[in-house]
Protein 1
Amino acid sequence: MTSATAPRTAPGTAPGERRAGTAAPVFTGIGVAAPNGLGTRDWWRATLAGESGIRPVSRFDASGYPATLAGEVPGFDAEARIPNRLLPQTDHMTRLALAAAEEALADSGADVGQAPDLTAGVATAASAGGFEFGQRELQALWSKGGQYVSAYQSFAWFYAVNAGQISIKHGLGGPSGVLVTEQAGGLDAVAQARRHLRKGSRLIVTGGVDGAVCPWGWTAQLTGGRMTTVADPAAAYLPFDAAASGHVPGEGGAILVLEAEAAARERGARTYGAFAGYAATFDPPPGSGGEPGLRRAIELALADAGTAPQAVDVVFADAAGVPSLDRAEAAAIRAVFGARAVPVTAPKTMTGRLQAGAGSLDLAAALLSIRDGVLPPTVNVRPDPGHGLDLVTSAREHPVRTALVLARGQGGFNAATVVTAAGS
Amino acid sequence: MTLAELTALLRECAGEDEGVDLDGDTLDTPLAELKYDSLAVLQTAGRIECDYGIRLSDDAVAEAHTPRLLLDFINESLAESRAQAAA
């Protein structure tokens, strides 16, 4: 075992860490469950076509709530996609995560699951755990009594449940865990995967699939004060627009397979791109007047990647849709790149904000932008010129070798990730 | 309780592994081979407790490694419960 704190070049460093540390890890598999498409192919086609998945909530009756729109994953048949033994013990968002993980692993062509594999692990992100499952069981508790609560409540509503279920289902016996940093988690989890690879793992299934479209989740998110109450799906979630009024929440996200570069090369894997740089920062205390941490996260991530701002071909924005947060993000982007100097996009305008799933889905979009040379659009938004951003409002042909993905989590979390074309 | 009734409850409470034939002769097949772990059995036992108004000791449930042992224990508990009710 290698020490988590040992510098990579120190004597005693595990051979795997030295080998894996010589090149940035690479993405070899993508699995998607998104409100505008289930499965990578459907989602990416819809995304480039500007098709939104934001609609009135259907998973429960939201008509009595101030916010009535959500991004819900369409056409998900749990009975067909999830082993029967797992149905009584999984929340809806865990089922989506299992489907995405299966797609990602199949896409990667990696050889896993034959035997307990200590070199392959899981690092996921979560913001709330299985709220819909938890609500049902808590209702059973107070309405009928403790003996009516499912034994599976013991883990089904935990933050770490997706990591655990993916690990068990695919025989991934290596390091396994969960990051909880609200929306920044979808990037932070992938950085955790990189740490595991540097310490000797060969493959980590990572990313986030999240969602709490149920009365309990809804109430909890409403108290955050950032949800829009606009009921028109085309006018509700408008980041960087003068009419921004908050966000629409959604369910889903992406699961990615991140491999040590040498391991991927040895098995001749197709790679989507490299995880070239990353940083996380924390905001100063509210009301302190300090600058938010996002600019610093961007600069540190670029430095980590050894990338100059001029080399970045596109920025996937956090896109809060809250005017003050949009201003802060635009200011951070301008401070690093200059005004209107880099294309900025927010395909999450088609999905809603997916909590811990958002950053991972944006990473998937960044990787496919690299593959296809096209930037997905930010829909419905008329950019407020005051932000000084080159906002991509319709799909744009544009060669991409380097993409920057941003995510902010409520509570002060900032994360920035640089992905590059393989071999960059 | 019969094997068929127990099997139906296991299916409902804990699902059914795609590689297992629950309708075959499973009376003496270890529950683990039927892909039911301790939590699956605990969940099913909890359901039986609610449906039949009895208490099943967790330790005794955990020691019942086959449907036959589990049924024996459940039926003993049901008989005791009926005897107490009649007394």
Note: Chain B touches chain A at residues 12-18, 35, 39-40, 42-43, 46, 49-50 (CB under 8 Å).
Protein 2
Amino acid sequence: MDYAVVVIIEVLYAISVLALISAGLAVIFGMMRVINLAHGEFLVLGSYAAIFSNRYGVPIYLAILVAAPLAGAVWGFIVERLIVRWLYGRLINTMLATWGLSLAMMGAFVMIFGNTQTGISAPIAGFTVGAYQINGYNLFIIAMAIVVMAGLYAVMKGTRAGLVARAAMQRPDMAQAFGYNTSQVYMWTFVAGSALAGLAGGILTPIFGAIPSGGANYIAKAFITVITGGASVVSGTLASASILGLVYQIFTFLSTSVVGEIALLIAAVVLLRILPTGITGRFLRNRV
Amino acid sequence: MKTGREILLTAIVGFIFMFALPLLLSHYTLTVLTAFAILALSLGFVWGYGGILCFGQAAFYGLGGYAFAVAAINTQMPWLGFLAAILIPAIVAALLGAMMFYGRLSDVYMAVVTLVFTLILFKFMNTTAGEAYRIGSARLGGYNGIPGFPTLTKPWNPTDYLYNESLYYFAFLLLIALYLIVRLILKSPFGRALVGIRENELRAELMGYDVRLLKTVAFTIGGAIAGIAGCIFANWAEIITPNMFSLGQSSEIIIWTIVGGAGTLAGPIIGAGVLGYLKIALGENSGLNNFFIMGIVLIAAVLFLPRGIFPTVQSLLSRVSLGRPRQRISRRRRSRAG
């Protein structure tokens, strides 16, 4: 019984981590068909923002939940204006340019922070279930994943901004004809996605810490989750994060976490072979 | 230009470079740059002419290296290893390509599959430390890689190793030969059909070409060439590590190709040589981080030189000499589409 609780929490945790690190990328890809390959470095940036603002006296929750997304948003704004906006509609070129950005940011992190791992300790203590120890912060991550996903859904379905954003993505010409500046909409969508990336980086800092090369780990998983999910932002991400997170955690329990990661990657490839346009390309169409 | 004359001309230019370059740089450095050039040639063919953007060309490069080392250790006959370094990446590329092209995956999805495939290999190879992971008498060695395998020898004298100067000339001759082979492939009906697919896949298909098959074959050829590059690298470094599969390696190949000019064959080779040298030179006196510079170069190339340096210079030169711009439609299309 205790073991079952532990397993369930671990599975939920794996799914939540995937959902969190993919959310920002999913917004940018799902809405704008732009793949930001520097997404992983945006998360690392969020981590550094959280760590250093905390070190200079910002309370830890403020550092994680405010400073980190703020850093992501500001940097996303700069990147969109300088690089991404010239490349809309050229998917491959955006991927290449943002890959370059990813390398450059990684190099910059090494030059600024040095090639070492830094971190902050988790603000929530662990507790025990029967004979097992559970990391209390994992529950916080699960809660935050739910909040982020629900928030995304609410914004896109329920607010005027979400409506305009979706309209601008589906029919840019029509949105423009109704007087909305699509270039601005794109910009703010990219900023929102970047803020989500920073937030995810901040939330995950107490678990993974911050290391200059850490982005590569994030981007692979996020990229895979988003592509496997397909074009629908919330439902696609949730569906693929659930499947891939489940596969990962099962194989991690059976063997080691490396086997789990390999199983996750293979599962993604198999899924794409069966559903070439992602899960929401076939199921749950036209959902948010 | 007649095919015969072009081959002759290319060979002459190649030989001039082969003998002129050692005046500038050491044979040791040039050998690894040649391996990079062969690697860039493989992506230049697959991406520039086949229109297949492979984010995981490093996978075949690494497989070539590992296939060579494992076969050479087991048979003690390095030339069998050389064959293995061509065959195994080719077979793997054929399987992966068939899966992607017969599955009709589109651009992004193909990118993710090739990227993931490379990551799987990278992660797997990093965990193969210990006795359990061995192929024949070759231990895969995990993070530390495989050191101490027999390297290539002169075929007529098995104790005379290809080393430093001789390895360089061997590698460069291979580069010239592979360049010519790819040129000939592109002049063949198969090559023309491939370029047709790149320009308009649907039209090629409606004309009766089996797009899936042709792309798979092109991908396989690319894999084989990358495998040869891996074999040269293994002979040069005399050790192979999982880093050959790393994302950094994959990105470098793409950077060389795009900076040199996708859609040409000489461009990627030049890109690999120049940027590869830049990286080595920067590595020696590292004030700036290597990744930082490579990243900036890639961003700048995508934003300002989407056609690559080589085609840009080429069209500038022809504009100067002819007095009017001579642009090929295919090139213009290329830069717009990808």
Note: Chain B has 14 helices and six strands.
